[in-house]
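Reopening this one. Same input as before:
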Amino acid sequence: MIQIEVTTSCNLSCSYCFRNSQGRDIDPSIVEKISSCDSEFVLYGFGEPLSNRNINKIIRMLDGKITLSTNGIADIDEITSHVDRIGFSIDSLNESYLRTTRKGSDLGKILGNIEKANSKGFIEVVITRDNFNDVEELIKLAGNFGIDLILTNVVPPSREFYRRVLYFEPSKRVLELAGFLDGNDLEEDFIVKVIKDCSRGKGRYLERYMEIHRIAHEEGLQVNLLSMIESIERVQIAIQAEKRMRYFEEMAKDYGIKIDSPEFFGDAKNRECPYKNSIFLKADGRVSSCMILSRNHIEFVNNHGREVEEFIAGDLNYQEFDEVKESMHWFDERREDMENFPWCADCPHVSGCWYIARNEDCYINNPSCGECLYSTGIAKCLF
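Same output, byte for byte:
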């Protein structure tokens, strides 16, 4: 699969978007270089694809299945018959929410375009605590049109948005070992009591601490108990969101549609790169491994800000596609098995880790995917 960012221009200003560049359309000659290099193309990136003046020309160039993701404001008449799927980003039917979070959105235009797309359409939703309950109305809308939904948790660009997430990054199995999933939460001063037991050489708090770590170690997991104890409210929110999502899934079944749901906890032992065997072609012609590593930005994860540096594997302005793919071969091998990267959320040293600050990890990966929310399904690719 080749994901093509056909433009970085956009007619909306979404508060959670990482777009940080001036508007630029991809040169059609760059698209021509990769037009027959894959069987599937996704037109989606940090911009609105329909803002590209050459979008019809680009679509006709591509020899394969085409998915286009749009915010639904521009008319889709000219492209509908030439693409296979059209995703519509609409996070709520609440116009007040859209005005504050997706500034410039127009619900009437979006609904009109969804109707035009007919069976080719599907709905994309970015969820936070602010709009999660609105999913119920979106399911009803999708059911009326007979189309499916894809939901993703937000990848926060700021501390403010991080406070509004529904998920908790550490592995659910570790939370289970510590008793957080059966209502037997650890006391707030559990670590202090463990330290006191250590000074005596024995005690029930030390025994419990050692048992949690023993089982986790046997299963190949790490444990960040301090993070869990300090984040009890977030854990409870994630548990409730997970239950609510099961309700939404049953509701979607009743409407005869599918809902692709995100996870609300990490899982160090069950990670997969959704971008493996694919590339992300930027609007400037340079090639990255995925959308998240395609440009410099700051995101918040594991209760800290993380400076992500762009990873560029090649440049189709002067290279051929095969040459670029070859230059990324080493990284493709690494992400084929995500256990080649640590799951930093479970690490007791994640707070203040100097590797993370350099976009590396303790497995000597650079760039690192050790905090990638997409690898665990907490965040989903909207295509």
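So the earlier flakiness isn't reproducible anymore. For the record, The chain is about 35% helix and 15% strand.
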